[in-house]
Write a structure and sequence with these properties.
mainly beta, 5-stranded antiparallel β-sheet, 38-stranded antiparallel beta barrel, 1164 residues, 52% strand, Immunoglobulin-like
Length: 1164
Amino acid sequence: MVRTRIRRTGVALVIAGMFLSSVDVNPAGEIPGAYADAPLAPASAPASPEASPSAPASAAASPSPAAALAIQQNTPAPVSSDEPKAPEAGDLTHLTFTATDGLSASLIAPADDAVAPSTTTSVEVETVRGAGVEVKVGDVVVPFSRIGKRTVDNKTGSTHYVYYGVVLAPGPNVVSLTPLGAGGARGTTSAHRVYGPGRPTTLALSASGPLRADGASEDELHLEGHDQWGHRAAAGSVVRVTLISGDARLARVKDEPREASATPVPLATSSAAPDPQQPAAIRQTVDVVLGADGTAVVKLIPGLTPGDLVVHAECGESVRDARFFLAPNLRKPFVNGLITAGAGAVPGNPNQPDGDPNGTNSRRGRIAVFGTGVLGKSLATFAYDTADRLQRTPSYGGAYDGDPNDKPYLVTGDASTRRDDALSRDHLFARIDAGRTSAEWGEFRARTSANDSTLGGFDQLVDGAKLELNGQFRRASAFAARNDVGYDRRVIAPSGLANGIALRPDIVVGSELIVLATLDAHTGAVLSQTPLTRGVDYAIEYATGQLRFIDVPLPFDEVFNPRELVITYEFNAPGNSAMTVGGRAETTFGRNHAIKLGAGYVNDSSGAGNVTLASQDLSGTFSGGNWNITHASSQGALLATSAGVPLAGSGGGALHASYNRATGADRLSFLYDRTGIGYYDPFGGLTTPGLLNERLTFTHKLAGSNGELSLDVGHQSNIGLGGGGSNEQTTAALRMRRAFGKRFVLNASVERRVATSNLAGGSAATAQPTPFPLLSPLPNALVPYQAPPTESSTQVSLGADWRAAHNVDVSVNRLQTIAGSNEVQPAQTDAQIAYDLGKSGRAYLRERWSASPVQSFAAATQSLTAGSGGTRSTQFGITRNLGPATTLESSWSIDHTANGDDVYAAMGARERFKLGRTSGDLTFQHANAVGENAANAGFNLYGMSLNYADPSQRFRASASGQFRTGNDAGVSLTLGATGALSPDLSLFALINDARAIGSNESDERAGLAWRPSRSDKGVTLLQYERQDGTSTLNNTQSGVLSLEQVLRVRERTTLVGRYAYKLNGDSQYAASSSLAGFRVDQAVGSRLDADAEVRQSNIRGIAGTKATALGVEGGVRLGDQTRLGVGYNFSATADPSLSTTPAHRGVYVTITSVVNRLFGWGKR
């Protein structure tokens, strides 16, 4: 037995020895720290591929085969940043090559014609025993110091080398392999093609599965980026994902999941979905980074409203729009409501008119019901209330309306989140969703233009009827509305001081659209229009009309192009009647349905004003490009409601066309914009009446991605308002950008401009916007630019970008006129220096010197682009992280005008902290403006926020306060708290206060509830509510402290007491008014009850206002849901005007039924 075991053990050891000896795993020692896919920095003296002294090998490569040359001609040189670093533990340069015949080399990984994981990757090659392999990428030899691993199969002699940190260029790379032997012998060179991943040129969007509007599920959007060679894009590219429309919320995958799901109740809930009626809140943006496989994931949390979700993805020049359907959540029917009717002297509230919402008339007859759920194969949702309208008042949410994407939401948390899914400006809301088809009566956003339309269109909040017929490839919608609202539109130049803007009071909640437009300082054409987001970029008080900016909109962009704010909104106008009818249809066709055709129409009649807008759009996408044609026309105009509204035309058309295509190293783009002089869109963004803008650009990337050469041809023509004449200009520019090494880039261009003009007495520029009370004074009106009859010029520019150090960049550019004159683009010098603070931030300084003030070519926008006639402008700022919890942000803008220097400056700091269960931050912001046009305005802002949550998450509280001094001084306070303080005590608080010079708005609510956890004998509720503000004519104030107590004395006896005390007065009543009530309920048997109630109201200081109401009532339950009551009202109640005393004394009858089923639909 022992011998048998020894014999078996020996055989096993022999087999193991044979196996282990067949492969020599890195006999030279595997180098620690040499990882594939990890770029390596340059070694101080990188070894070149040569053999040991005993067998030297030439480093020169033998001529490549013809096939390799053919590949190499179309292959860019490898993109090199800093040279990869050699492995820290040493290298394999001491290897000796002994092979004398049969030299060969083959590529193992990446395979031939395969794609490497990244542009810095590992390369594995195979050769024979005793041989080495010289690896070349293009003309660059990979040194032996990159070898991090060698394996030798002792049986076959197969030898594998793994080179780490090999740099590839995006696209095809020629990898040449030359086997090396003893005595410098070189075998036949083989050429292989390996692709390096490039930047994404096309994007693809897909959903993780069917999307359902349940308000709770967490789905995913998958993004895939592909480069121009059709492979997965390189990692590291940032993709901006924007939710254009639809009821959903975007979040990064790493974000924390929601702690509360939504419920389909048309009241304030804890749903974290955005308000479906608020377009700015819907347009959410999330930035994600493509991973190693060229993909990224975005979390999508649906809301409760079915319909299409339009998602826009953008990465550099690559854009992609995708439409997903949010299917109805076919849940079990849910109905909740009541029906009551009364006759006779039904008791009412003392000192309250019978017709008030939820007043005495509601006890004489009321139907209030809400329902949602599956109806056949459809989802039905409705709400109806005869006692009040289903509309949000302007004081909704107080100083702001909480939204998960808002900055205030990050402070106040879930305690401030509200959602309303059944809104209407009358008493009924109804919606039915049958698959992709829906019909609705209520409040909704009506849109008649494409989501990406550059010509604006109708996009307003209306109330009426809407029908949507949606298929997978075809969509149509029609709507009709009649509302008592007015429209207002303003174009305002931002001052850079985050000033408040005084809009009209009583704004319709969620109706505002604010766009930041950027204009070309030389041509006057609109370069971009960016929608701003409420709560992120600005805050608005709907009751007072106060608009304040959170993120400061600066007067100029990074290259000193001017900016304008375009504000459109609706305001309540009792007696006004706005009739709106319109619709839109879309269809897609062609290969992969890449072509989209759409048309929209709307007619709006408001008072004596009437305007009609029609639009048609045709667009398509193809591999490496896209095209778009959009036409819009207008007829008529609305009456101007504000002094700052630009002059309106009586009718005209606008045409936009664009074409973009990228093929290999070439890129072609064409743009055509023409706006008729009478075109008028009171609901959209900024327009340029009378301007024609044409531009053709061709760009070619130089070999090795070392620069580019571009040809830019443009033509503009502008007809002055009133048809007084026109001016034209044509420009052609040849530009080159060339990189020399890693630190220096040279920019050069030559431009020719020819302009003609036949304007009589100068162009008639658009009227200058009128300053508003809270705005800094705008510059004085300028004399319109009068172009000479003919003007021509030849200009050259030369500039350089230099990386002076690893963290310092310097840029200089000089534009010089060498022939003729150019008032639109005078000779100028630009300079910039930027200092990279690494993880701590970045600092910059920009300066521009112009030989003369820049004159805008376009008369349509000249008053907007030529703000000050400046000849020198300066911008400098810093964004810096002072520590793990502190961020410092600063920015300055200096405009040297003809009359002096105007300086605009803004800076701020934020310190985050955490003390136990409490976290928060301290904020400071300073802004200042100095100069004649700036009016020496400025402010200081001090802010603090606190957040608290107990470990069990049963109680949460958040608070934020801001105090502002100087220009537009004021103070704001926001607080939210909810949850259980103890098993018996709960708290709810919501405070929104805002104060400014000449205006204020307050909405404060707090409640403390006591209910024994081990007993059901009683409940106590202490509440405080306060609303006041300057939005109404009578400066109404309402501060009420109330106490309610429910006490069950015995099993069948319940005592209810209420007391409310008014703490402050208004223009109608003085303070110290009170309302007291006491009620006794006695159950008699299982179906009978007897009740008595007394109420008394009193207003101190006004004789005869004391009123008492007393009534008794008996009731009987009819079934499980209905109660019949008969009673007697002993006291009359006084009319608030004290002019009449309505008779409410006598017998009355009421019948009330709880509703949880309608015609068999609902609770089962």
